[in-house]
Write a structure and sequence with these properties.
The chain is 70% helix and 0% strand. Helix 1 runs antiparallel to helix 5, helix 2 packs parallel to helix 5 and helix 3 runs antiparallel to helix 5. It is elongated, with a radius of gyration of 20 Å.
């Protein structure tokens, strides 16, 4: 079941990150054209680009867990026994799960609290709570990724991140 969920999260993240980057890029190009060709600026473009980049950053944090791209102190593994290495792996995964749970808990509180206050963004006039919703969503995605790694560790296997070479992209 975890592997199935992982594939679904892969597709959702891939689609959302691609769409958000495409939106940010297109709006930036249109903004430049509007400003210099038509001498008229799009007042909402900077806000949309900013929100797109922030959402992309949160989503790619989960992808970083999947592809083992986050910073880690691998030199410590060279000085400890294989048993201690395994314990350190468990500790890292449990800490990652705790961090993701904090994102879900406090991100949900922030998003719902802001929605209750009916706070709107300054330029686009959209609910800011909807923008903040990316925080708990990315936390859930991260939790699923860490659960996949924990599943592999409990099964007695080392987690191997997928190869993301140019051929696989």
């Amino acid at each position: 079941m975890i592997l199935w969920l992982n594939r679904i999260v892969d597709r959702i993240e891939g689609f959302l990150v691609t769409a958000l980057m495409l939106v940010a890029t297109l709006v930036a190009v249109i903004q430049v054209a509007a400003r210099y060709v038509f001498n008229n600026s799009l007042y909402w473009s900077e806000e949309l680009i900013l929100y797109s980049l922030i959402a992309t950053s949160f989503l790619t944090a989960s992808m970083g867990v999947r592809y083992a791209a986050h910073i880690s102190v691998e030199a410590a593994y060279a000085f400890v026994s294989p048993r201690t290495q395994r314990v350190l792996h468990y500790v890292a995964v449990v800490l990652g799960l705790a961090f993701a749970a904090v994102l879900v808990w406090y991100g949900t509180r922030l998003a719902l609290g802001t929605l209750r206050m009916n706070q709107l963004s300054s330029a686009m006039r959209i609910p800011v709570g909807a923008v903040y919703a990316i925080i708990p969503v990315s936390g859930v995605f991260m939790m699923l990724r860490y659960l996949l790694i924990l599943h592999e560790l409990i099964a007695g296997r080392d987690y191997r991140a997928p190869d993301i070479g140019i051929k696989n992209a």
